[in-house]
Amino acid sequence: MSQPVLDVSDVDKNFGGLRALSNINLQIKQGTTHAIIGPNGAGKSTLLNVCIGRLPPDRGAVIFNSDVITGRQPHEINQMGVVRVFQTPAIFPDLSVKQNVMLPAFAKRDGAFRLNMMQAVADQRQLESEAEHWLEDVGLLSHQHQLVGSLSRGDKRRLELAMGLIQKPRLLLLDEPTAGMSRHDTNTTIELLKKIKLRGMTEVIIEHDMHVVFSLADRISVLAQGQIIAEGTPEEIRGNPKVQEAYLGGTQV
Ligand SMILES: Nc1ncnc2c1ncn2[C@@H]1O[C@H](COP(=O)(O)OP(=O)(O)OP(=O)(O)O)[C@@H](O)[C@H]1O
After folding, report:
1. In sequence order, which residues have a C-beta less than 8 Å from that of residue 33 and are 6 or more positions away?
2. Taking the model in full, what pTM does it have?
């Protein structure tokens, strides 16, 4: 098997006496969409936070493209190409749609002020055109001058996706991309994520909506009480009795 893009190896995470993650092993292959599902409190967000450096694991390692990223700061991991979108407080409602898309690219580019004015203007123009490209990609170009505060929930999610894509990720972590969306917006988002995937993007998606999961995932890992209780193709997971049991009383898979 080729080297996985992301390799989570023997990870434990405790909060006091609570074992939120227990011996997690997970490999994400290049160009695939891998869904992580599980009932409330299963440990999905904790796992994502360990992967992006927001939480240190108590044991084990996370390896991204052969580099051990455990112990690195979130911004370093982000610079390496791991981009998390959705459920982030990164939108500025008083700025325009285009200005919001430019922000993460500014931060990523060098994080420093440029003293050369001509260069600064050239950089600004280039970023604007990049922002327009990604806004067109997510279907928001016609809203580029609008203030973000006035966007619908679905459009805000599309904006967040453009803010992720402008960072040119090598791995996209999608945290409940359709939470709270109408069915129409959900379906539009599914189509958009399919389009991005067709370009070879590697995606990890945490999602409660099984319609979204089964529309997008190549592989699914099921977490329950901090452990991976099943992993496989959507067909394998759909028929797995352990998974049905974990969801009993909740969403049916
Ligand atoms: N910072 C924290 N301090 C203490 N306990 C925490 C902390 N973060 C999460 N937990 C606990 O760890 C367990 C896993 O939580 P986590 O948020 O990872 O689950 P989840 O699968 O993402 O749930 P949901 O689907 O409801 O978002 C839960 O019991 C939760 O209460």
Report:
1. 193, 197, 202, 203, 204, 205, 216, 217, 218, 219
2. 0.89
